[in-house]
Write a structure and sequence with these properties.
This protein is mainly α. It has one domain. The protein is 92% helix and 0% strand. The radius of gyration is 21 Å and the shape is rod-shaped. It comes from Arabidopsis thaliana (Mouse-ear cress). This is (thale cress) hypothetical protein.
Length: 62
């Protein structure tokens, strides 16, 4: 009974880790996109900057 309970706990831990990794990947993708929009904004593309509040701040500083 000890080994079976530890096995189920291990499976739960693995699925939990997989869920966290997926959420982290989803979280990092928008962050990198925001950085690219800011870079594009500096290059002169204001359309993407207007969509993000950070881009508006960059335009205001210019």
């Amino acid at each position: 009974m000890d080994s079976s309970s530890s096995n189920s706990a291990g499976e739960e831990g693995r699925t939990a880790l997989k869920g966290l990794q997926k959420s982290n990947l989803k979280g990092t993708k928008p962050v990198t996109r925001e950085k690219t929009t800011i870079v594009n904004n500096v290059d002169g593309t204001t359309t993407q900057g207007e969509k993000t509040t950070k881009g508006k701040n960059m335009i205001g500083k210019k």
